[in-house]
Amino acid sequence: MPEPVLAVERFTYSYPSSAVPALDDVSLSLDPGSFTVVTGASGCGKSTLLRAACGLVPHFHGGEVSGELFAGGMSVRQHGPSDLAEVCGTLLQDPETQVVMNGVRAEIALALEHRGEPQGAVARAVEEASLALGVGHLLDRGVDTLSGGELQRVALAGAIAHRPRLLLLDEPASQLDPVAGDELVSLLRRLNEEWDVAVLVAEHRLERCLAGADRVVALDRGRVACDAAPPEFLAWAAAEDRDDLLTPAARLFKQAGMGPLPASVKQARVLLRGAGLAPAAGGPADDYSGDDAPASARRPMRARLRPRWRSRSAGHAALSLHGVWLELEDGGAILRGVDFAIAPGERVALMGRNGAGKSTLLRVARGLVEPTRGDVRRAGEVALLLQNPGDYLIHERAGDETDAAGLAAAGLEGRASANPRDLSGGERQRLALEVALGTSAPAAVLLDEPTRGMDWPRRRALAERLRALAVAGAGVVVATHDSGFAAEVADRVVLMGQGVVIADGPAAEVLVGGWHFATEVARVLDGAGGALTPEEGALVIERELVG
Amino acid sequence: MSGGFVPVYRRRPSALHAARAGAGAGFCLALALVGVVYEHPLVLLAALVAVVAAALAADVGGELRRAARLAVPLALLVAAINPIVSQQGQTVLVRGWEILGRRFDVTLEALAYGGVAALRLLVVVFALALLSAAVDPDELLRLFRRVSYRSALTAALATRLVPVLARDASRMSDAARCRPQPPGRSAVARAALAGALDRAVDVAASLEVRGYARARRPARTRRPWSRHDLRLATVALALVTVAIAARALGAGSFTPYPRLELSAGPAEALLCAALPALALAPFAGRSARLGVAHA
Lengths: 547, 295
Description:
A: alpha/beta; Rossmann fold; six-stranded mixed sheet; 35% helix; globular; B: 11 helices
């Protein structure tokens, strides 16, 4: 038996001035070359476990510890994060604060230079790490010129350059679009397989990494609730009615009363075929475009959707943009003649890769940025919730941020005197939304990536709030990378690429017909019936496939 | 859409960018030295031309313009204040006013000296802006790390955090504008400050997990001198030698008070011609262009 690279023995930890332990009697062991996902609801202790594994807990954060934690044979009681850095490569949530130097090359070299490695060894390690992560072409760039995905990969290259035996990652894909997120997971799997690096990833969205994982550790209020291989973990979550821990494909199977629950799209398809329920390949039921479909049905998405789709906003719009351009001084453009409108009560998901122009479109719509050309019309107030809800909270008391009605809408009655910084992530986001909404009913409500780092129950609660706003007459636009959330909240999806609208249509068409932007359920069912969510998918299985 | 006053380093195909940080920094500091050593307006003007010419040759004219947004108004302020506050000089241009029994006149000498001070400021600021825009800050800090590792890394962090914090503040300001009743600037500034402390804690955690506490002095880098290194270092040495030797020999003397006196002979003419010529020397000729990577 190889010596475990991480051994946690009855480890309990409480943050300073906290009566409740963040980790409670945790025991687990990670073998070299293993790929483990740690999951659970917000605040369950995922990040704390990672911070303990790299020594930040207790050496950086303070607090009380009992039990033992060994990383690479070093006890966290005797060794601080700098000692453990010999063994661990750590990537915390926000890559912006992970990056220290000005240039990419210097950034990747930093950990090696801390160790006083000779220059030749540093140069070689930088070269190898950058090639492994596909950032070789970025070595001479400044870190401030990188996109979010590039920055994440550079930060990861910096974490692996010294060849750690254990890689600790805290929601590494939370800021990435689906394409970059999938690429990152593939890279992690490659590092794991080719370099024998043990990987421990904290992640809410299991559908991204469950397929590649050897093992899942579910935490519940600081305790290990389940520690098993993915199939057994899914069976446990289903038996415990922990739908928040199931992937969409697993929820689909659970809703349809099928088993065993699949850990990946591929496995789900195999299981469906095995049950004689193989879905027909193609798009939505009313727009079939499989191989044997007529040529007209196999047109590219833009051609297929744009001319056909007529939004309700064609009449009176809550918000409309006509031929909007946003050009840069150096000649480039972020928005290139965008036409977009939303009707009162309509719910639109704005999707696309990082840098597609989604956030800028919302800023222009709200009036934070003036377009260089084009016209923006607003039927009334436009509320915008930007990516970081904490930016809205500038007072010492929650009660100073909004009035009593706003606090009640945010579910914070009786907490007016709480400091917004002490609220949980979900509470802060709800409060920030009420702050942005104000007291009057806005004509349109815009949200930029509101589900980043959010667990399933919080996403559901937000979707309900947005539906309520739409029922009250507001046009709702959500810029998101989360196709599952888009399917849940939107009746229309606008896909952007390089500053232009490349698809605009009903959610059931756009989220089924794509690849990276399709929901997991749509991929499992190959678009059958236009089903996007597990609930819709279960109905399709029951009504169409079985029938 | 870019803003700010601080020039940003970007790798470009120029001899100055291609040279090692020590040689590049030496060249820029030698140009700044002229602004420190001399008060002669023609010499300062020549030094200013030299710095701007070097910046254009290094393709960082835009970055110099960015620095000029702060430096030029500051220089104009200096030029305007000196004649008001300085009561030296014999050539009265404007009979001034009397405050608390003291008379305030504007003299030609004070006016000229204000202009000289403004020129000196521009030469020094532009030379440092050239350094900031064309010399790799990471490589430069690596040089200092052999002397004091943690101080150099702290300096690196500070330079890196400035734009990050500026972005944070800008984001918070945008969020404040999104509120139906935008709050006052002081409330936003207080929140931004609190956010900066959170950022600092995050960065400290990142450094810890990358072995900062056990950081050792980095190994010495042995890198052969390229022709760009040699040219830049030679020119920097020549600039320092010419500036100091000419000053020691009495060239470029300037006395503002009580009456303006400035030497204007062959030595000054030679010095004024030498400065731009030396500043452009590293960029001139075929060998300066060959071997420079074009990104």
